[in-house]
Amino acid sequence: MWTTAQRRRLTETPYADALDRHAGAGIASFHALPIGSLAHAPDGDDSALAERTRRLFGSYLATELTLGSPELDSFFRAHRQLARSRRLTAEAFGADDTQYVTTGTTGANQVALEALRVAGARVLVDRSVHQSIHFALDRLGADVLYAPTSPTDTEHGVITALREAKAAGVEVDVVVVGVSAYDGSLVQMRRFLGALQELTAESGCRVLVDEAWTAIHAFHPWLRRLTAIHAIRETLAEHPDWPASFLVTHSTHKSMLALRQGSYLHVIGPDTLKATVRAALYRVHTTSPSLPVLASLDIARAHAVAEGTALVERALAQADRLRELARRVPWLAEHRPVATTSAYLADPMKVHLDLGTPERAQEVRAALFDEYGIFVSRQDGSTLLFTMHVGVTPEQVDLLVEALESVCCLDAPECSCGDERYIIAYPPGIPLQVPGEQLSAPPSRRAGEELYSTF
Fold first, then answer.
1. Are residues 246 and 107 in the same domain?
2. Angle at 324 between CA 318 and CA 329, to 5 degrees
3. Beta-bridge partner residues of 379
4. Which of these, 169, 235, 141, 234, lies nearest to 196 by C-alpha position?
5. The whole model's pTM is what?
6. What domain range is 378 assigned to?
7. Using one digit for the tens of pLDDT, what is the confidence trace for 335-390?
8. One domain for residues 200 and 348
9. Which residue has the higher pLDDT, 433 or 400?
C-alpha cells in the first residue's frame, strides 16, 4: 500500500516522541495540578493513597502533564509536532485532513455534526447509528428523518429513504450513516456511495460516516477496499464534479493501539470544511485534552502501518479457528446474523457462536469470565459475539477453545438502560426506539396466560 519511504515516514511518532521527552524532564509546574508529579515523589514522602496511585497507574503518570510547550503544540492551533502527527494520520488513511479527539467518538460525532451545520437542516439518519448522534441531532435542533432499518438484498435503508424523499420533492441536506456495526454488519460502501451519488449528483450532500469498529481495516490490503475513505476516494475519482463532502469518525481504541477515548475525525472535502471542523472542535472539545490519549493516537497510526497487516492476518486466522470449533462441536454452531448482499456484508473479524438456548449462552458467558478470565461483551439470545481484534493472541484462543469445550453452567445477570424518548441497550448503544416511534401493545391473551415484557 505504501512505498518504503512512505512507510518509514508514516511510522514516525512526532507527538509521542515530544511527550516522551517532556515526561522524563521532571519539570516543576505551577499551573494546574499535574498528577504526574506523584511519579517523582520520594518514597515515604506522601500518603498511602499516593503510593497506591503510583502502583496503579505506573509510568502513565509521567505523561499526564498540564504543560504548555511549543514542542507539544497547541491542541486547537497546532502547527508543530501535533500538526505533523495529524498530517501523517490523514495520509495513512487517505483523508484530506484528520483531527484527534480525546473525548471518544461520542465527542467526535458531536464535533462532526456541529461542523456539518445540522441546526435547522433536514438530516436523513440511519436509525441504527450510535446514541451520541441521536442525542447531538436532538440538541442541535435538526429536522430528522429516520431511514428504515431492515436491510434488503439490494439497497440500504438510507438510499431507499433518500429515493422516496426525492420522489416526494423533499430535499435532504445531510446524510448520517453507520457503516460498521457492533455486531459485524458492514455496509457495501462502493454500492452505497454509487447510489448516493446518483441521487445527489447535482445538489450534492454533506455526509457523516460513523465507522466506529473498523479503523484497523484501512491497514489490510483486502479489508481496506471495504472501508469508507477508500470507497469515497474511488467514487470521487469516478465523479469528480459531484459536490459532496464527507466526515468519517473512527472509535480508534476499538480496533487500534490507542487509549480509550481516542478518536479520529477525518475530512474529505474542501478547505472550507476543514476550517469548519477546526472551528467546531474549538466549540465542542474540552480545553484540557489528554496528552497521553493524543500520543496514543500518534502511536496507533504508526503501529498500524508497521504491523497492521500481519496482526489482522493473525486475527483472521484466530477467527477461523473459532469457526472450525463450531463445525466440530455438536452443541455449538456459528450464527451469521449478516448475509452478504449487494447492500451488506459481514466483518470477518467478528464471530457469533450459537449455544442453542439463551439460558445456555448466559451460563457459558458467565463461566468463561468467572472460571477462565475471558470476557464476552455481548449476548443476543442464544448467541455470544467474539470480536477477534488484533490484540487477541493464539494463546488466548487456545484458552477460549479449551473453555468452550469444557465449561460448566452458571447464572449471569443482564441489564439495559434508556430514557423517556429513546430505548437504548448498552452495549452497543444503538436505540431500539427513537422519537416518533411507538411500541405496539402485545396481542390480547386469554385469562391465565403468562405475560412477557418486550423490553
1. yes
2. 130
3. 384
4. 235
5. 0.88
6. 308-406
7. 988 888 889 999 999 999 999 999 999 999 999 999 999 999 899 999 999 999 99
8. no
9. 400
